[in-house]
Amino acid sequence: MRDFLNKSLAVLIWIATGFNVALSCYTGAMIIRYSPMQLIGDSTVILYGFLFILFGVTLSLVFAGICFQIMDIRTFTKHVALNQRRV
Fold this sequence. Notes:
Elements: H1 2-33, H2 42-86
Helix pairs in contact: 1-2
């Protein structure tokens, strides 16, 4: 069971990243769509929406990269521990 969970962890990270990217794109689009055009300038709202999308996607991918780095560190330390045990 543990091996199955370790192998499916990468898939779960990509699924969570995909949901987060989709959510940030949707939120940025809704910021642009439902903005009060009369109160705030048109270009300001569009810029804010696109920046929200850009930073949301970037943060999602950075989070996925950090998760994969943690997985690599766990795998590396497990192999080092097994090699130390054999010596």
